[in-house]
Amino acid sequence: MALAQPTPKKNTRSIVTTVHQGDCHVSNKTDVTFSTVLGSCIGACVRDVEANVGGMNHFLLAEQSGSAKDRFGSSARYGAYAMEELINMVLKEGTGIKQNLEFKIFGGGKINSSLADVGASNVAFVYKFLKDEGYKITSEDMGGTFARRVMFDPTTGRARVKRLDSATGQNIVNKEMAFAGKQKVVKPADDDIELF
User: Fold this and answer.
1) What is the predicted pLDDT for the residue at 185?
2) Domain 15-181, architecture per CATH
3) Which residues contact 12 (CB under 8 A, 6 or more apart)?
4) 37 close to 23: Cβ distance less than 8 angstroms
5) CB atoms near residue 78 (< 10 Å)
């Protein structure tokens, strides 16, 4: 008697694109998944439900301080720019109709008790931004005292969140602080362009 051979399964694996601080990615490909790890940062996922195109951003702070605005200009590491960039990219690749957009937001944790609650400021910013722009949030996992990994399928809008342990959270805090510490201005001698 011969044993039945298992039917091979169709490969349903995705191409995973990591969304780092300051990044914004958009796709309409069914085999793409966006992934990010958030501590106090915010990751917003936006999808055009009619065009099946979506994207994810990852911003570090709600807004730049006055001196940073003057030195660095706009940057996707900061909330307003990151949100505008993502929304505009999804509108451009999608139907261009704001009412077709759905929003899922994640992050804003207080993962280090010795630091100021940057996460709470980020959460307050993203809520206010979306409300002021007339957008509704369809899903969220915000705040808390933990880091999270977020996976987002841009064509289906499916988002998955895994809350991470405290050791991983501390590693994220260290990376966020190292990244913020690297923001130094270098001014060339004979040029008025500032590099950072």
Assistant:
1) 37
2) 2-Layer Sandwich (3.30)
3) none
4) no
5) 21
